[in-house]
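=== Structure Prediction Worksheet ===
Name of assembly: unnamed complex
Input type: mixed (protein and possibly other molecules)
Chain count: two
Listed entries:
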Amino acid sequence: MRLSLNYISNCIIFTSREKNMKKSNRIIAGAMSGTSADGVDVALISITGHGLAMSARLLGHHQLPYEPSIREQIFSTRSSGIIGLDNLAKLGKAISHSYARAVNEALAQAGIEAGDVEAIAAHGQTLFHDPPHTIQWLDPALLAAETGCAVVSDFRRADCAAGGQGAPLVPFADYILFRHPTKNRILLNIGGIANITWLKAGGSIEDVIAFDTGPGNCISDHLSRKHDPTGPGYDLDAQRAKKGQLLEQCFERFLQHSYFWQPPPRSTDTPAMIALFDESIRSEGHVSPDDLFATAISITSISIANSIAMFQTDEVICSGGGAKNPLIWQTLEFLLNSRQISLLKSDDLGVSSDAKEAIAFALLGTATLDGLPSNVPSVTGARRAVILGSITPKP
Amino acid sequence: MRLSLNYISNCIIFTSREKNMKKSNRIIAGAMSGTSADGVDVALISITGHGLAMSARLLGHHQLPYEPSIREQIFSTRSSGIIGLDNLAKLGKAISHSYARAVNEALAQAGIEAGDVEAIAAHGQTLFHDPPHTIQWLDPALLAAETGCAVVSDFRRADCAAGGQGAPLVPFADYILFRHPTKNRILLNIGGIANITWLKAGGSIEDVIAFDTGPGNCISDHLSRKHDPTGPGYDLDAQRAKKGQLLEQCFERFLQHSYFWQPPPRSTDTPAMIALFDESIRSEGHVSPDDLFATAISITSISIANSIAMFQTDEVICSGGGAKNPLIWQTLEFLLNSRQISLLKSDDLGVSSDAKEAIAFALLGTATLDGLPSNVPSVTGARRAVILGSITPKP
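=== Predicted Assembly ===
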């Protein structure tokens, strides 16, 4: 099964909707930097159609890691929760320069002129998220000036203003890209935070359920920064977690938190999950760092699996950096296969796992340019569907 | 002369450009809160034409003072230069609620439906300004949601991205509203900071010179908050300044600062001016607060007059809260009349002094909606004219 899907992915992307391509297509650059703050992903997308009838074709994907100083500043700001206004302004410029460089490099690699890009749909860097308060930081005018493109940005605020959590927003794109007439599907993205989108077989957008399951890589990354400060910032191939033992009491304390019992809509943020972990290990006494890594991975895997178990599903389609973690993957594969659920990577269905979130924001930005809503009220808890984001004109 | 101008202002506003009104007119709400953080001014404007050929008619003006808690938070944030991200997000919401309430009250007073407003052009609250870094804080999606109107906001960033100071931006509107074929004119606005715009008789937009002269009311307001914490937050009718004596050494130290010798373009911000004042009085020993008030007013008046003296001008047209300060007015009137320069209030020319900055942002926002640039590169130092701001769609 995997093989045939891989074959499809090598041929063409999102074939099922290519037939809609009679309408003129537009090139949109989706640009995303997640809560793991590893860098900026840019997906160059050719989009045909409008709203839920959009189809998309990936023209290029590029990831630019943040410079270490920017990454450190994002983490220190997020963990302290406080910032000088001068540093806030400077950080906004540094983030925007990174976005601009990532977009320009992606365009150069793909041989696409900036003048042919209708807009950059830029997520910005989440500095704070505690619904209904949320800050995605970016200077869209600077990004526009350095690329020559219009920018759509600040997607979450309109949903918050409509009473929603401002997250997750990717389900709109999940529905467009992955809905299936006869299969129930779950899209699982494991970034700093992990989230799932449930797509009912043959269902409408109103049937979509999605929420943050809890931590993705954020606790493991936090442990890497703490116990391996000169390393890559994450536990490569789960090397440390593999050497550790589960701290059962910490594990149980963590998962007993009320967040994991809240019905959707629910969304969380990395500082909250890291704080909860630090709280959960407080009474452990001396423990081996490797055990902490192992426990973090188990918490991530089991909180994801518990969330998936709430739904009837045929396939779980995984994306994000956590999909590359062998321990998470093995745990999920074991738990899901025992229930006859297939665990796939989004690449297997022709959507690059690394690019998926950037692709999603390209679709969200296109909806905004078309004056169409793109939040999913059943998912965010918003009172109504609204147009997301602000448009900064081409300079 | 005043009488006849007052008569004109009672009849109709901006009559000289009414002849362009054949084109369909649009209603724009300009919304402004300045560095003095006294509240939100809303000017409802009917605009005809495009770009520099725009004409404007004031349909209504409303000022909503900030609630004291918001005002205090803005000042404490600006003076400390540091903020928690949760408070930053909450302050953004509080500012946006104030903007929304001010717009909704202005619309109700004028009997205009939100559906008839093409957009709100909202300045946002300056939290930080040290070019090329600037933060005008506002949640445009929340403002849009609470008014039902599209919002144009964040005007300064695009100019900064083009190498400019992001300020002043009002000269674009000054040129549209006040240019004269045979008179050299200076527009003087005295808010927290004071700034002037010089309009050459019969000149083009490229001839415009404008810059921040230095402090407006910000030092006097700072002294009021310090020495009269339960008062209105400013020195009403210059009562305290009138009782004080000029501290000559402080006065001279202040005006010797290099800022006052910089050629334009130049812009400054209230924390910098307040810090300079505090520095200038440091070696004074014990002084009467009234003397500080008197010295602050002299600094404001003389730094304005020195800036005006750089230009050949027939009229100085004053607006902003400082125009109501009798000591500033008398000082300027004395200094200008001795040079045969008329000192007028913008009200005398039919443009409400209190509403002028809000009117200016309505014009700037309209240019953005039309896809036209509205910075004045000769004024801001930008490399080129650019479209300013981001557009948040009507919800």
